[in-house]
């Protein structure tokens, strides 16, 4: 009898453990907006595998022809309350694509003003609001006719909009203005402007109870928290270099915040107490960006902008448990439950059209400079994407690859001492010049001005 009791207890514990680590339902999907390949990657969280891709355009650089008709820079994602429609924002072609999640087909496209960034359905599903970041307004679209019905004036460069769960207020953050516009949804009027610490805020998210808005400040590495009743900022805390997106998950009875820190290749987990405290740091692949939790909070999914895929975090252990290869340079990521009505959900999806990228983190020789490089194959040619930070403002820098005597790329920093650029060409041939590691890059040297490559006097090296 005693042994039987122990066996029953062990069996029950095993069932509890299995339940805690159970995979999400096979009817659910994870989506990423892939900026470089101009695809939407569709993943099955039950198998931790890519189902296929929705191709909205050609991969870079094949987007420059005057006859090109596809979308460019597939970047933002939103969805309808019933999860039947996925909203996709392509900021290079000013497009808002409406995708049927059951068929993976585009059912409508709306073109708005210059460089939209993100969009979302209203809480009642009757309107779609898209922030037009290259201008100063929110475009309101009818999701049935796919026509723009009005514009809501905001501060310069609105970056994202989200609706409070009760449907009464919308919060619009900015990429160029250090303020949040609070909009009355019924009147479509801005009723409050909330000052914040930085003008560059790419993402906001509500806590599950709707009492707070959390927003990221990518340029200064901070998160701001706003009380949705008082409409006041009550907490600002440091997070890290290139703070991107936020997700919330309920773990062990407590709501935790998961923040993707692109410049550190980590996801940081914080409490949601009055003063947020860092609980743990989870190492990830290259440049974590979009992030979203499963409905049951068992998993947190993070897109790797320079890793071309998604990593799966087990919320109970706070460890990465799977990697799913996807499109090039994923930006936004969302998790939608109960979208597959029948079959395996692969209708109208195409296989992955790209391979794995190569990543190199650059080290400062002197000073506080930072940088990283990613090498992607584009078929006939390759792309070497260089991102440099904390250099001298408005200054030219030269990049040398694999000991070449001639400059491989020349870049000029902006007013903040940062630059992002891409070199297109037969990079693999150059990288294979040593005859040993074809297709790899072994040495990168960044010099100020046009000085010849010299590791001892370089600004950044691999």
UniProtKB/TrEMBL annotation:
<keyword id="KW-0732">Signal</keyword>
<protein>
    <submittedName>
        <fullName>Beta-propeller fold lactonase family protein</fullName>
    </submittedName>
</protein>
<dbReference type="InterPro" id="IPR011964">
    <property type="entry name" value="YVTN_b-propeller_repeat"/>
</dbReference>
<feature type="signal peptide">
    <location>
        <begin position="1"/>
        <end position="22"/>
    </location>
</feature>
<dbReference type="InterPro" id="IPR015943">
    <property type="entry name" value="WD40/YVTN_repeat-like_dom_sf"/>
</dbReference>
<dbReference type="InterPro" id="IPR048433">
    <property type="entry name" value="YNCE-like_beta-prop"/>
</dbReference>
<dbReference type="InterPro" id="IPR051200">
    <property type="entry name" value="Host-pathogen_enzymatic-act"/>
</dbReference>
<dbReference type="Pfam" id="PF21783">
    <property type="entry name" value="YNCE"/>
</dbReference>
<dbReference type="InterPro" id="IPR011045">
    <property type="entry name" value="N2O_reductase_N"/>
</dbReference>
<feature type="domain" description="YNCE-like beta-propeller">
    <location>
        <begin position="121"/>
        <end position="342"/>
    </location>
</feature>
